[in-house]
Every structure is written in structure tokens, then in C-alpha cells.
Amino acid sequence: MNELLRDVASTALVIHIGMLAVVVWRIWRGQTVGDRLVGVDLVTTLLISILILLSIIQRDSLFIDLALALAALGFISTVAMAKYLADEQMF
Question: Number of structural domains, the chain?
């Protein structure tokens, strides 16, 4: 069972890294600021899932702590960028 879980997590990790490359390309070539904002939010989500998968593969809970910190920072940065996009001023 452990080998099966490790194989599935490794396959999911490769898929997530591939999706991360596609999203970074979309941020680079985004047509509008809204596209780039959604892309940055999706990069944060993919990085969180990659950290969780690394935690499963390596059996180390440190990656889960990093994922929680990244989730908090990602939420705050998304709200700040959306406010800037709406009002064109930061505070």
C-alpha cells in the first residue's frame, strides 16, 4: 500500500509541475491584468498542492507547515491585488 501511495503521489507531483509550467506561461502572456491575477492565485494553489504531495512522498510534516504559511500569504496577496485592481490604489 505504501508503494502504491508513493507512486500515485509521484505521478500527481509530475502532473502538478506540468500544470504549474502552463500557468506560468499564461501569467507571462496574459492579455489582461485580471488574467494575470487569476494566474498568480492559481500558482499559489498549485504550489500548496505540490508542497502537500512532497510531504506525502517524503513523510515530512515540515512541508505541510510551509503549505499553510503559503496559503495565508496567498490569500492576503490575492485580496490586496484585487483591491488594487478595483481601486487603482493600494491603501
Answer: 1
Contact between residue 13 and residue 53 where contact means Cβ atoms under 8 Å apart? yes
Q: What is the pTM of this model?
A: 0.86
- 16, 22 Cβ separation under 8 angstroms: no
Q: Could you give the angle at which helices 33-58 and 62-87 cross, rounded to 10 degrees?
A: 170
pLDDT at 1: 65
What range defines the domain where residue 69 resides? Answer: 2-87
Find where cell 509550467 sits.
21
Element (H, E) at 35: helix 33-58
Contact 44, 78 (CB under 8 A): yes
Task: Report the SS3 class of residue 79.
Answer: helix
